[in-house]
Design goal:
globular, four-stranded antiparallel sheet, mainly beta, 31 strands, Neuraminidase
């Protein structure tokens, strides 16, 4: 029989620990279970999953700032590192270990096909992953734990294209299929099986309320899911494994910014239902989520906003203040997390 000795038990910084009074015994056959899984899955600070990352933005060129939050808490964002290539309006998604950023606006005047990644558990700069099939801007991202997708584009020749990567393997994107219509400035979220694409801009001044979906494990064209209530161009989206929530953006017919929050049940088909309201009418807002909470940040209302706000996904209601982004110009940033609805919780 092995002997297991513990000299002390303390909290993380060593300043305090539990007090054990009287006689304490441990029983059972399982013993002590050592954490398993890849090192990058076990956060360096001892925490679990639930980190949201906000990267890049427009200021008025592409920004290289990366910040992060702990979704379960409230408070201001903290510096994470820098992007390898400045970008704004890029698609973003994540696995339980990696955050991915695809394309975007690269200052001073070009769009890029570069795919970059970060490791959620560490704080540091982004690295190059590969390339999209074509330069993209105002594209959106969603994923499960295996595949990641970039959909939509304001570049006219590839507006309805859906591209995919295998997140665990660095390399270039490949073709997946097409959306039901060509849009940019749309919003994306996912369950572990379905990817959702909502709203967007069809052409200057013409916005879409259409919601599309794909089955991520297969390859093929999107199908129509339903419609949003009012929001068209530049909304943000978050999800858990059952609900998708789409918020903000610009609504037809005059392009007025919206504070509307809609929700859908991802496993079904149908139109979105009212959830509540944002703190203010905001376009270019972006979101990240855990299984219980969604956090929206940045955007224009009408100036660039650094506000972070959250909703409880299972309960309809208005957004609540979370904190602030540190970067003063987070308009059109790219956002992902390591615990969103596309991942097994």
């Amino acid at each position: 029989m092995s002997e297991f000795r513990v000299n002390s038990i303390t909290n993380q910084d060593g300043s305090a620990g539990p007090q054990v009074c009287g006689v304490s015994t441990f029983s059972g056959k399982s013993g002590v279970q050592i954490p398993s899984g890849p090192t990058e899955f076990r956060r360096l600070d001892g925490g679990g999953r639930g980190r949201g990352v906000f990267a890049g933005g427009y200021n008025p060129g592409g920004n290289n700032t990366i910040e992060f939050i702990e979704i379960a808490t409230t408070g201001n964002a903290t510096d994470f590192g820098d992007m390898k290539k400045n970008s704004a309006n890029a698609a973003a998604f994540g696995s339980s270990t990696k955050g991915i950023f695809c394309g975007g606006y690269f200052a001073p005047s070009a769009n890029t096909d570069t795919i970059q990644f970060v490791t959620f558990s560490s704080r540091g700069g982004a690295n190059e992953f590969g390339d999209l099939l074509a330069p993209a801007i105002n594209n959106i991202g969603f994923s499960n734990n295996i595949r990641g997708f970039s959909a939509g584009n304001s570049n006219s020749l590839t507006k309805n294209v859906i591209e995919m990567i295998t997140i665990a393997t660095q390399g270039h994107a490949s073709d997946f299929g097409f959306m039901t219509q060509g849009v940019g400035n749309n919003a994306g979220c996912a369950s572990p099986t379905r990817g959702i694409m909502a709203g967007g801009q069809l052409s200057p001044g013409v916005y879409s309320k259409v919601i599309d979906f794909i089955t991520m494990s297969t390859q093929g064209n999107a199908q129509q899911f339903g419609e949003l209530s009012t929001v068209g161009r530049e909304p943000g989206a978050i999800s858990n494994s059952t609900r998708g929530i789409i918020a903000g953006g610009r609504a037809n017919p005059d392009g007025t910014r919206s504070d509307v929050i809609d929700f859908i049940t991802i496993a079904t088909l149908g139109n979105a239902t009212d959830f509540g309201n944002l703190l203010a009418a905001t376009s270019f807002i972006r979101g990240c989520s855990s299984s219980t909470r969604g956090v929206f940040g940045g955007g224009q209302a009408p100036g660039a906003q650094n506000v972070l706000q959250f909703v409880t996904i299972s309960t309809a209601g208005n957004a609540t203040d979370f904190g602030d982004l540190d970067d003063g110009t987070p308009h059109s940033c790219s956002v992902c997390s390591d615990a969103h609805g596309g991942l097994a919780q």
